[in-house]
Amino acid sequence: MSSPAHAIYSSTLSLSLQGHEFQPQYGVQLIFNETARSRLLCSAACSQNPSCRIFDYDSSSHRCRLFEADLTNGAIIATASQTSIVGSMILSASLYASIYNQSCSACQENRYQTCSSTTNTCQCPGNSYWNGSMCPLQLFANATCSQIDACRSDLNLSCIINYYGEFTQCLLAITTTALVQQSCTVGSPTMLLNLYNPGAFPYTYYTYSYTPTTEQATIMVEIQDDPNAINIDDVSVVDTSSQQLLTNGGFETGSLAPWQHGTTSVGAVTAGCGYSGAYCYWDSIVGQTDNIHQTFSTVPGSIVNVSFYLWSRGAGSVIIARVCIYPN
User: Fold this and answer.
1) In this model, does residue 209 exceed pLDDT 90?
2) What is the pLDDT of residues 105-150, one digit of tens each?
3) Is 320 helix (H, G, I), strand (E, B) or coil?
4) CATH class of the structural domain 190-327
5) Contact (Cβ atoms closer than 8 angstroms) between residue 95 and residue 36
6) How far is CA 289 from CA 34, 134, 147, 219, 266, in A?
7) Which pairs from 57-61 meet CB under 8 Å and 24+ separation?
8) Residue 44, CB-side half-sphere exposure with 13 Å CA sphere
9) 180: how many CB neighbours lie within 10 A of its CB?
10) Domain named Apple: which ranges (predicted)?
11) Which of 54, 297, 307, 311 could be joined to 231 by an S-S link, Cβ 3.0–4.6 Å?
């Protein structure tokens, strides 16, 4: 339930000098491009549209443009028309703090928050997020982000977590689906590691180069240890620009996602066994192999570096550790 259409919203604007227009960073930020009889009517149109945070108006052509943008993802630039002007909404935490998460009656005639039909409370409008004090606009691709909902989810962007469990930047989300193959010995993957009965050994570092042939690939870690366990940690796939391509490779979120189990699920993310942090992936499957896998984006022909730490916790009758990559 959103604010009623007849509500009269109140907004405070900052106006640029004449001879300027707004230049958005992305085309999707333009939400209205029509004519208006006056600058006052154009600014009123922006004020009545909760998505609008910037407008520009040309009194000669009567062009009125509304943008779901601010000066973090666009710019006020000089233009040839000396009758063009830019108006920006002035936002502050005081507009949000007393209303956020309150019952819907608190935001019934408020342009800055909207009533959620799910929670029946005042929440940030679409394409914005709560940062603890106000509702900034969600971020676009490659922007630095600091929380899970900070990126434009409508554009399939996610705030990526690195293998230290830290939020990094907004990137296209990849849906990792369960592989048909349940072993590195099935199909035609690139085999990076293939250990059979190596005995017990402490955390050991392995590193390999891999040249992708497709735009996505899936890394699989396959394990069996009768009757003990194998730990893996700090799994990393880094491209030539040092960009980490995996999410949660160090398992420091305390959960497996976005890694997926194979059809057999015995191993788990466990505390107290990490090589560099608190967590590792611990697998003690007996009698057959188990696997986890994750899909990542690649550039065909561009070499990536794959690395990880492996610990075989005890000698057994059958110890298998394989790491391979399937092209998608």
Assistant:
1) yes
2) 999 888 899 999 889 999 999 999 999 999 999 999 889 999 889 9
3) strand
4) mainly beta
5) no
6) 63, 49, 36, 16, 10
7) 57/84, 57/85, 57/87, 58/21, 58/83, 58/84, 58/85, 59/83, 59/84, 59/85, 61/35
8) 10
9) 9
10) 17-90
11) 311
Q: What is the maximum alpha-carbon separation in the chain?
A: 85
Residue 10: predicted pLDDT: 66
Amino acid residing at 90:
I
Rounded-to-integer distance, Cα 271 and Cα 282, Å: 9
Residue from 172, 169, 142, 134 nearest 154 by CA: 172
Distance from CA of residue 178 to its chain's centroid?
Answer: 21
H/E element, 323: strand 318-327
User: How many Å apart are CA 78 and CA 81, to the nearest integer?
Assistant: 9
Q: Using only the alpha carbons of the chain, give its radius of gyration.
A: 26
Superfamily (CATH) of domain 1-136: Hepatocyte Growth Factor (3.50.4.10)
